[in-house]
Amino acid sequence: MKNRELTLRPFNDADINLMTVWLKKDYIINWYHDADEWLAEISQRNETYCWIHHFIVMDFKTPIGFCQYYDCYDAGDLENWYHVTISGDTFSIDYLIGNEAYLNKGYGKEIVRLLTNTIQTEENARQIIVKPEKENHASNHVLMWNGYIFDEKQKFYRKLLK
């Protein structure tokens, strides 16, 4: 990765076309599966899904990816891979690099680092949990590089923040 500092900026309506292109790329749809479902969620980010924090990852003025985080308690029945009973305790993240020029250069590690630091700064969370598919070796590696540990019993990655 070149010596650049990535930033996260809030997702806005002008980003929907770019996100549509990214979500239809083979290397992304392989893990994100239903592009229309993701786009519907993002389109409702100020209403139904206002509890999810959506961002565009920027390399100076170039958008290179997307990421989001959310309180697992607020997700309720939308997710079935964890059980959370306390608000503000456990968060989860999603991330992707949509600009192919930034693949396999360490930018994924920086995105997860930024997202993790954002949660530590903005929320009073105890932990972040993430469950990429086992076959998504790049994502699993990025999480481990950022200090996430795979919980064999729960079958997801966890990073304790406190």
SS elements, strand count:
7
**What is the CATH architecture annotation?**
3-Layer(aba) Sandwich
Strand arrangement, largest sheet?
Answer: 1-2-3-4-5-7-6
CATH structural fold name: Aminopeptidase
Shape verdict: globular
User: Percent of residues in helical segments?
Assistant: 25-40%
CATH class: Alpha Beta
Q: How many structurally independent domains?
A: 1
- What is the string of SSEs from the N terminus onward? EHHHEEHEHEHEE
Largest sheet: 7 strands, mixed
Secondary-structure class: alpha+beta
CATH superfamily: Gcn5-related N-acetyltransferase (GNAT)
Average pLDDT reading? 93
Uncertain segments of ≥5 residues (pLDDT<50)? Answer: none
Number of helices: 6
Multimeric organization: single chain
The proportion of strand residues reads 25-35%
- The end-to-end span amounts to 29 Å
Radius of gyration: 15 Å
How is this structure best described in words?
The structure is a single chain. The protein has a single domain, classed as Gcn5-related N-acetyltransferase (GNAT) (Aminopeptidase), CATH 3.40.630.30. A hairpin with a 2-residue loop joins strand 2 and strand 3. By secondary structure, the protein is an alpha+beta fold. The two termini are 29 Å apart. It is globular and about 35 Å long. A seven-stranded mixed beta sheet has the order 1-2-3-4-5-7-6. The mean pLDDT is 93. It is built from six helices and seven strands, in the order βαααββαβαβαββ. Helix 1 packs antiparallel against helix 3.
